[in-house]
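Field log, afternoon session.

UNIT: design team B
ACTIVITY: writing a sequence onto a fixed backbone
BACKBONE:
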C-alpha cells in the first residue's frame, strides 16, 4: 500500500500545478483579453473614422452638386434671355438687317420644274393643320392605357381574355 500511496501521491503532485504557473496563466489570460479588446476597439475606431470621412465626402459632393445645379439654372436663364425674339431682332437690326418688305423679295424661276412644286404656296401652315385638335379626356386616356396594359399582360402570360373581359372601344 505504501507503493500505491506513493504512486497516488506522485500522480496528484503531477496534476497539481505550481503557484507560479497558475499566476502566469491568469496573467496571460488577462493580457490576451486586453489585447483582444484593444484590437476590436482599434477596428471599430478605424471603421467609424472611415464612415465619418465618407459622410463628410458625401456632404461635400452634395454641396458641389447644388452649386453646379445653380450654375446650370443661371446659364439656362442666360441662354433663354439671349434667344428671346426681341433680343434677336434688336441684334439683327444692330448688325444692319431689316425686315423684308414684299417689294424686296425676288423669286427665281427655275426651268424644268413641275408645276405642282412651283405652285406650292410658301405661306406658313395653319396651326390646326399641324396639330390636330385634342379632345380626349383624362378618363378616356386612362381607360385606354389600362386596356393596353391588360392586353400586354395577357400576351405575356399567354392567355386570351374572355369575351366579357375584352374592353369596349
Amino acid at each position: 500500500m505504501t507503493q500505491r500511496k506513493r504512486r497516488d501521491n506522485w500522480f496528484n503532485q503531477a496534476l497539481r500545478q505550481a503557484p507560479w504557473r497558475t499566476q502566469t496563466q491568469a496573467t496571460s489570460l488577462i493580457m490576451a483579453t486586453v489585447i483582444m479588446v484593444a484590437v476590436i476597439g482599434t477596428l471599430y475606431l478605424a471603421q467609424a473614422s472611415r464612415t465619418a470621412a465618407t459622410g463628410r465626402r458625401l456632404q461635400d459632393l452634395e454641396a458641389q452638386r447644388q452649386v453646379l445645379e445653380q450654375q446650370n439654372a443661371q446659364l439656362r436663364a442666360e441662354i433663354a434671355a439671349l434667344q428671346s425674339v426681341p433680343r434677336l431682332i434688336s441684334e439683327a437690326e444692330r448688325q444692319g438687317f431689316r425686315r423684308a418688305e414684299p417689294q424686296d423679295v425676288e423669286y427665281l424661276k427655275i426651268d424644268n420644274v413641275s408645276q405642282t412644286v412651283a405652285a406650292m404656296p410658301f405661306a406658313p401652315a395653319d396651326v390646326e393643320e399641324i396639330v390636330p385638335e385634342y379632345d380626349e379626356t383624362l378618363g378616356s386616356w386612362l381607360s385606354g392605357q389600362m386596356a393596353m396594359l391588360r392586353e400586354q399582360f395577357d400576351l405575356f402570360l399567354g392567355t386570351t381574355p374572355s369575351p366579357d373581359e375584352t374592353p369596349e372601344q
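LOG NOTE: The chain has six helices and no strands.
NEXT ACTIVITY: expression trials, pending approval
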